[in-house]
Automatic annotation (TrEMBL), chain A:
Pfam family, one: CheW
UniProt cross-references to PROSITE patterns, sorted A to Z: CHEW
Organism of provenance: Paenibacillus tianjinensis
Protein name per its UniProtKB record: Chemotaxis protein CheW
Record-annotated CheW-like domain positions: 4-145
SUPFAM superfamilies per the UniProt record, alphabetical: CheW-like (SSF50341)
CDD domains associated with the record: CheW
Domain of life: Bacteria
TrEMBL record, chain B:
Species name: Paenibacillus tianjinensis
Reactions mediated catalytically: ATP + protein L-histidine = ADP + protein N-phospho-L-histidine
Protein name: Chemotaxis protein CheA
Residue stretches making up the HPt domain: 1-103
Residue span, CheW-like domain: 559-690
Amino acid sequence: MAEDIKVIVFKLGSEEYGIEVEKVQTIERMMPITRVPKTYSFIKGVINLRGVVIPVIDLRGRFGIQEAEHTDQTRIIIVNVNEMEVGFIVDSANDVIDLNRDSIDTPPDVVGGIKAKYLDGVAKIGEDRLLIMLNLTEVLNKSEIVQLESLEG
Amino acid sequence: MDMNQYLSMFIDESNDHLQSLNESMMGLEANPEDISIVQVIFRSAHTLKGMAATMGFEDLASLTHQMENVLDLVRNNKLRMQDFIFDTLFKSLDALESMVEDITGGGEGKADVSAIVSSLQAIVRGEVPAAAGAAAEVTAAAATTGDAQISLDEFQYSVLEQSLQEGHQVLYVDVAIRKDCQLKAVRAYMVFDLLERSGEVVKSFPSVQDIEQEKFDYGFSLYYITQKDASEIQRMILNLSEIDKVTAVALDQESLSQMAQEMSAATAEASPAAPVQESPASAPAAPAASAAKEENGKSAPVRTGGAPSRTIRVDIERLDVLMNLFSELLIDRVRLEQLASEVQNGDLTETVEHMGRVSGDLQNIVMKLRMVPVDTVFNRFPRMVRDLAKSLDKKIDLVVTGAETELDRTVIDEIGDPLVHLLRNAVDHGVESIQDRLASGKSDTGTVNLRAFHSGNHVFIEIEDDGAGIKPQKILQSAIKKGIITQEQAAAYSDDEAIQLLFAPGFSTAEVISDVSGRGVGLDVVKSKITSLGGNVVVYSTPGKGTNFSVQLPLTLSIIAAMLVKIGSEKYAIPLSSIVETGIVKNTQIRTIHGNRMIEFRNSHIPLLSLSKFYAVPDFDESTEEETEIVVVRKGERLVALAVQDFIGQNDIVIKNLGKYLPEVQGISGATILGDGQVALIIDPNAFIK
């Protein structure tokens, strides 16, 4: 029997995603973001999180989904991966659930247009809820972005 | 027990002890007769050994233990310090340092130190290599204990020799008594008693009297004549209780004569009754270098220990957290002040004002916590200069002043390497060789002054030598030869300007570049490093009198004065240190040369760059305006004008980095948090000047 893990659930569009709770520092409401020029378009800028300057990524932009207007529900999830502190802008975040590792399946080739490499797996909750587990290390991996851009250029 | 939680403490304390060991050893080298320094060294080494053993770093502990053995003899007046011993002890310190470094890097602290250990053991046994003037030492030391010792030795030697010829066994026996033994003198007596039953003890070290009075350290050696063989004697002694180890070696004619010589040295040193200072023979025997140092070394500060430290250690990261929390508090204070002014309640306003003052004071204290005395960098220099001077065969006195001057931690971390370079320079090229010094009528010992002092908002660190100085003409010639300047330019250079050419890239005046340094080689690197810290370095030199490198450093790196500017809805900070001036230009004054926009600035044309275009600011474009605000920034000699929308004003800002995810952004050197909690980016002026 595999162990239970706690997962923060957030939404991008109609999809539900999960990040292990240990990797999440805090979830913040939308706050003023200072644009940082000359970086990738999905890096929205930096915020002042209690005295620490933290870069913020629009997760929609990172996954190549159409970016959306920010609403009351928009949240910034601050994660800490490999000593990198980064904020993710997501459409909403309002759930913490327990998940059994056994219930996470390997990712299918394509889920909602997001490359499979960003995914750790897909978990089925209840009858018809699918939760996409994110592979944060890949999401924050920049070397692959550079390759992409040079290909496009 | 999990030791990892103590590891960082262990590393910190080990480094402290190693540092104090280094310092004390230097002090002892200057004053070899000062036993109180030896006590300090011994205590430090002992603590270090204990800590290393507790943490399970056996190699470290055992090497320290060997050092202790030597030091113990010294502090009990059984061994006189001399060059060879100093060198070995310094080598041990180096080995210990590299072990601790290994541990810091996550290693086991293991190292092959067998060579050093055997040297240390040899010293304890009283063997000192003949090359280190041992012969002189032996005679000198022997003379202090009277002729009786020497004749006795000859007598013993002949007795032993005869015994051998008569077919007896001559054994050299080494006995170690267990450390927890309560009555070691009694144990020793039992060993002697046992030995006397089946042979004759000819000579023991320490002497029998000393052993009886417990004046020995858990071990003794003796020459023994018997009919039994070595292994049997060994077994017999081991049968006694509380005996740790016994080695009995059978001697032949050859090894006997060799041993006898060592023994004479050992016995001489073992005699505590002979105060070394009174020996007239010891002065000429003492190495010349230490004798020279004695004269001016007396004033050298020696940490005598004892005074309890009134400081605590704080992780620098915790201080950063404290700073961050503090800037949060400041932001809230600004909000409170705003609200109070809206509410117009007297009590509230008063409280908020008081809070403002308190938080101002608090900010000062938090900033001061980050200040570290330059001593932490300086303290490794005396040792370095000593080693350098030795390897270059020069006599150099390093005089350190103002070591208590404080600098921000971030500056301290960066300044070490440039200073090492300048010091090496001073020792290698600044101070002349002994012959040259004497020839020019100076004393044979060169002086290198290393001083630090505050002046205004800066700290100055000066490295001054009393050497030959720098000849401007030589530098100009060399610069012309290397194509750095032309013949015509050279004619216009003043002496001072010529000397500053030392910092030009690719410059060197050293005819022979030694392995230590070539004057000029790498000085450009020193200069750029110091400039990158927001400092400056200049050199003054008087031919024949010496050279002075003066390094100017900002007090802190984390807070700088900056000009805040507005471009559209965005705010940027430009470091004041790189701003030449600000101004306004009319559009009609802007010219286009080769497609580049230029403006006239003090009789020359400098490029005009649009920050809004460079940073792609979405809501501003100055091309629609008639007048443009400009900030002229500088990198070295080159200038560029940056077009902005408006000046907000000058402010002290706290520099923060953009985090690990965004290590480098073109044209941005960091970020800061403004009073309203907003993040403003700091412009890196160097990015505009290529």
